[in-house]
Amino acid sequence: MSIFVTVPTLLRTFTQDQKRIEVQGQTVLDVIEYMEKQYPGVKERLIGDGQVHRFVNIYVNDDDIRFVDNLATVLKAGDSLTILPAVAGG
Amino acid sequence: MLSIRAGLLEAMLEQARRDHPLETCGIVAAPIGVRTAERLVPMDNAARSPTFFSFDPRQQLAVWRALDERDEECRVIYHSHTASVAYPSAEDVRYAGDASVHYVIVSTLAAVAECVRSFRIINNKVTEERICVVH
């Protein structure tokens, strides 16, 4: 089942500068595991202790996964997953 | 050095003064490959706090998609400090992970002499840089 991932500038060093990649997976976590196999090192930039890092936003289509099922958010063929750095500060 | 179109720093300050005492925030976009940051995009501070800011994730997604469509990139991330000088806080440094972005801070504290400053933040190291205004 193909899912399309939009990769932020910060992670493009892992994806040989590709901005959009095609991956496989039934859930967001599956997709991240799949990406880790293809692009080792990417997983620890996105998640730690089973949670998405607070400085990362992951969206499935238009929805922030924090407001759906987090890493267990279910995907369907053709869904688009976007990763963006969360922007915040004091 | 940050190269930025004339008028945008003033627009940031005006936005910051309008939102004071809450922190304000936004980005300046630049066409990919072009040196000067050209387009100011004010963002909502989802935290609505006098000591913290965060982009609203949904608004951020829409803005980033528009950047993509316009062949632009986020060149500057700016926010205000309402009770301290225009220098990155520890929290700013923790979140600022992008070596390609200029981090501009504006201070709305009345006694501050330099109310707009720009920084690069790379591997937690803060370096102030010169701002070049392009007319």
From TrEMBL, chain A:
Pfam family, one: ThiS
Gene3D superfamilies: 3.10.20.30
NCBIfam families found in the cross-reference section: moaD_arch
Record protein name field: MoaD family protein
Annotated source species: Pseudomonas tehranensis
Lineage: Bacteria, Pseudomonadati, Pseudomonadota, Gammaproteobacteria, Pseudomonadales
From TrEMBL, chain B:
Superkingdom per UniProt: Bacteria
PROSITE patterns: MPN
Keyword Hydrolase: yes
Keywords: Hydrolase, Metal-binding, Metalloprotease, Protease, Zinc
InterPro entries for the chain: JAB_dom_prok, JAMM/MPN+_dom, MPN, VirAsm_ModProt
Record flagged with keyword Cell membrane: no
Pfam families listed in its UniProt record: Prok-JAB
Stretches assigned to the MPN domain: 2-125
Identification of the protein by name: M67 family metallopeptidase
Organism: Pseudomonas tehranensis
Taxon lineage: Bacteria, Pseudomonadati, Pseudomonadota, Gammaproteobacteria, Pseudomonadales
